[in-house]
Design brief:
This protein is of the alpha+beta class. Helices cover 44% and strands 18% of the residues.
Length: 99
């Protein structure tokens, strides 16, 4: 099993690089597809990136997921970035807990 954490973004330079490479329409199409994959992930379940995403697309997929996770607290990457999990949320005394 590979460590895909090398694809973790450290800044947003990758966005323009991929837009230049793919074109804005294709980039947005892939971004929308990635967001839909994450939205459809059931709480408590993992999405196996190595199993489901071809190796040549893992870099962009991980970067797009990382961007999505910034605004959605209920997702978490595994330490090696090979999986992304949608956490189960519980509300207790007005606070949201993630598990």
């Amino acid at each position: 099993m590979s460590d895909l954490s090398k694809y973790r973004p450290h800044n947003y330079d990758w966005v323009n690089e991929y837009i230049d490479k793919l074109g804005i329409d294709k980039f947005q199409q892939i971004d929308n597809w990635t967001c839909n994959v994450l939205k459809q992930l059931e709480p408590g379940r993992y999405y196996d990136i190595q199993k489901n995403i071809p190796e040549q697309h893992q870099d962009l997929f991980i970067k797009l997921c990382a961007d999505y996770v910034i605004n959605h607290d209920d997702y978490l990457f595994s330490d090696d970035y090979t999986k992304i999990k949608r956490l189960v949320t519980h509300e207790l005394n007005g606070k949201i807990w993630y598990m």
